What we know:
Blueprint: E1 3-7, H1 8-16, E2 19-23, E3 26-29, E4 31-36, H2 46-52, E5 58-60, H3 64-77, E6 83-88, H4 92-95, H5 98-106, E7 111-117, E8 151-154, H6 161-172, E9 180-186, H7 187-191, E10 193-197, E11 204-207, H8 215-226, E12 231-235, H9 237-241, H10 245-255, E13 259-261, E14 276-279, H11 286-294, E15 297-301, H12 307-310, E16 322-327, H13 330-333, E17 339-342, H14 345-355, H15 363-387, H16 396-406, E18 412-415, H17 420-427, E19 436-438, H18 447-458, E20 464-469, H19 470-475, H20 479-486, E21 491-496, H21 501-509, H22 538-544, E22 548-552, H23 555-567, E23 572-577, H24 602-615
Parallel strand pairs: 2-11, 4-5, 4-6, 6-7, 7-9, 8-9, 12-13, 12-15, 13-14, 15-16, 16-17, 18-19, 18-20, 20-21, 21-23, 22-23
Antiparallel strand pairs: 1-10, 2-3
Amino acid sequence: MSTIKLTAAQAVIQYLDQQYVERDGVETKFFAGIFGIFGHGNVAGIGQALHQYERFPYYQCRNEQAMVHTAAGFAKVNKRLSAFVCTTSIGPGATNMITGAATATINRLPVLLLPGDIFSNRSAGTLLQQVEHPVSPDITVNDCFKPVSKYWDRINRPEQLIHALPEVMRTLISPADTGAVTLSLPHDVQAEAFDFPTKLFEKKVWHIPRNRPDADLLKKAADIIKNAKKPVILSGGGTLYSEAEGVLNRFAAKTGIPVGETYAGKGAVKYDKPYALGGLGATGTKGSIEVANEADVVIGIGTRYGDFITGSRSIFKNPDVKFININVCDMDGFKMGGLPLKGDAKATLQELNKLLKGYEVKKSYRNKIAKLNKEWEAEVQRIYREANDDTPPIHQGAVLSVLNDFMDDKDIVVCAAGSMPGDLHKLWRTKNPLGFHVEYGNSCMGYEIAGGLGAKMGAPDREVYILCGDGSYLMLNHEIVTSVQEGYKIVIVLSNNDGFASIGSLSESIGNKRFGTKYRYRDEKTGQLSGGTLPVDIAKNAESLGALVFKATDKTSLIEALKKAKKADRTSMVYIETELERTIPGYNAWWEVPIAEVSTQKDVKKRRKTYEQNKKTEQIYYL
């Protein structure tokens, strides 16, 4: 057997550089490169290997959590067919990645994490940045990655890579099991050498299958749909990752079954199609909520049935409702007591379409859906019109209105946290697949700029507009520097309302009167954070990081600022101050947030009674 002597770190990089995926005959190199921040736990191992093998691109980042968000944003835009690696030192460098890992795993996005670890041989004694456990010395901070990783391993000998690396790839490319994968690398092992078989470093092409569900279950699903009077499709992220949007649109147009969308699935159907209901769930459109309330069959495609989408299991009110779940994941397929069609979304819809030959919903139902679609467009126009006053600070709805009209069809809007995701889910007029990039599996504050950079790296021919509040910006803005350094221009639309608008509104709704949600000085008399606003200058901060900044105060100046940002040659910020407490309404859907069962506050007592009534609307679904 032919062998080559390499360090463990060199073997990792050489192996990753030769991994490819193929789907539908199209071959793609799987790893686009590696993000990293070097420290004593990885500089002499992975750092040396990357310096030696320059063909594997290295990108310098500013924050370990942010680099994982960037990797996730890249993977999402590439429909999970390409991914990034992230490397850190031990200690805080590693633990900083945990939130990013959770976000990637929740959203089923492939990211490979290579955190450094303590000496495997323990010869150096207690290390800098080592957390010690007196009863279990083999526990390190990297064990914290286990709950948020889809696969986890620690390499204590170089030869263990021969078996571990294929397991890493098996997990990352799996449509059902993908997410964050953690390969913990003790920094003495990174530098140790072994005679690896040369075959390990040959080009490897992994086939991404389009699995079909059980034939009998398909027939059963078709029979259920044929007997349905008010079916509805709930399209999730799996639709887009499968590239099933074309099949879905033909299926919906032919059968007349309306399509509602999750956050991850929004964009599969263009907003003006007569069967398009838009966002479905607690933050959904009025029409989608009405249809969901009455639906007798729900066809879930690639969705996790999160609580925002199901209205905490209260939105599907028909006592006889049945669920048909098209999903590559067993766990998701069985949710809501559904009939599980375990398979690829595109392939399964194609098979189901054959069995539904000649089936259409009644004309009256089709006409109702088309009417709801037009009524919603009129409602969007009304909301945008009423929000478009020119008195600063302006309504957040005005910002969305201007940006939605300004962006080209192929552009990407990115958001993750605060009040904007819910508003986008309702109001945004989606024009193309993957143009709506809202991370709402983890709704991670700080994802926006880093994830937007990843989206730009994955789709450099598209303009990327990042909607970001001051709360998220102050949490994680460092990757502005990386975007400038690497020449990936992004446009950050910064809405500053001096506080947490979304959680403030929620606080108001449960009787807490926005406690602790405004950015204010502490009032000397009351001791509360209710004094004047803080003298934070976000615009100057962005400029100091290398971004160009264009300020706006109203609709007219916002349009001009966007034009300047679009023409700019590097990352830009469009800065505008918005009203904190003016919100866009919901449409008779619920989302459960428990309210104190006992309290001395009248508002809390009152809202507890409403909570108890809403709690009764939650449904239990059985197989």
